[in-house]
Design goal:
Rossmann fold
Length: 289
């Protein structure tokens, strides 16, 4: 709570009288009965009310009605388009500000989707992407191959790849330190639009041991000819409410061929978890479409 700062409004004797009656903070002063304050300070009720109003003016947020707040939120909303039409549609025009979690079983296309988003965000723009690799398996050759198969010249490929900054971290402490330095300005990444962490669980599990469920762990049960598979989120109850949006990737076994696969993406807004939007994407050597 804020200390009582009324030196310009009350005399020392008046402040002393308030302190003796355990009115020591601004909150105490505002919550106390005005008649009691008038008796303790020997000020008139209009004077007490004037002091209260001055406190409200100095420390309260400016009032704004709901309509103005909504209009401001809509007009100033910032989002980054992924460049994948179907995905942008279920994300309501693109990636919003905040944290987005992408999860799914191994081989469901998580890293491929991250790389495609990185490519699409930097091409034809001044954006820079910070790609944090925690597994040591980021391959610039994969990005180069995608760009090459999409007809980009060597010059354009070089420009795009230079805008994707790769940083490798091996512990959660290193990751936190990196993010704090970026936030404080000790590390400056020009035109930084997006930070991709691939992936977070392998850092977190260094602290939890082997008994915890891994990201995208498959829980399988065979019942005769039936096969049940379930993917579990792994970062705990606290983390469940951290991401603004949860994207769950699921590989479609029915449409797999030698050169591509289809994935189903389910998008859940954590502010409205009962509404789930879905789309189908194709993953191939050309990227994610």
């Amino acid at each position: 709570m804020l200390k009582l700062k009324l030196e310009d409004l009350l005399t020392d004797n008046e402040l002393k009288s308030l302190n003796q009656n355990r009115i020591t903070t601004l909150l105490d002063f505002l919550q106390e009965d005005t008649e009691k304050l008038s008796i303790l300070t020997q000020l008139t009720l209009p004077q007490i009310l004037e002091i209260r109003n001055n406190i409200f003016k100095k420390y309260s947020a400016e009032p704004i009605n709901g309509t103005d707040l909504y209009i401001t939120s809509i007009t100033k909303r910032k989002s980054i388009q992924t460049g994948i039409k179907e995905l942008d549609s279920i994300l309501d025009r693109g990636i919003p500000s905040g944290i987005i979690e992408i999860c799914g079983l191994a081989g469901s296309g998580k890293s491929q989707l991250c790389m495609q988003i990185a490519i699409n965000c930097v091409k034809d723009s001044d954006n820079t992407i910070l790609y944090i690799d925690t597994k040591g398996d980021f391959s610039a050759l994969r990005i180069q191959k995608i760009l090459d198969l999409n007809g980009y010249s060597h010059k354009d490929m070089a420009i795009i790849m230079l805008k994707i900054k790769i940083v490798r971290v091996w512990t959660i402490e290193d990751l936190i330190e990196l993010i704090q330095k970026i936030k404080s300005g000790l590390i400056v990444v020009e035109n930084l639009a997006l930070v991709i962490i691939d992936s977070l669980p392998c850092l977190v599990f260094q602290h939890f041991g082997d008994d915890n469920k891994m990201d995208g762990e498959s829980t399988s049960v065979n019942k005769g000819s039936n096969y049940i598979e379930k993917a579990n989120r792994c970062l705990g109850k606290y983390w469940e409410n951290i991401p603004a949006i949860l994207l769950i990737l699921k590989r479609s076994l029915e449409s797999i061929d030698d050169n591509s696969l289809s994935i189903r993406i389910s998008a859940t807004n954590c502010n409205n978890p009962h509404v789930v939007k879905t789309c189908m994407l194709k993953v191939s050597a050309l990227g994610v479409r």
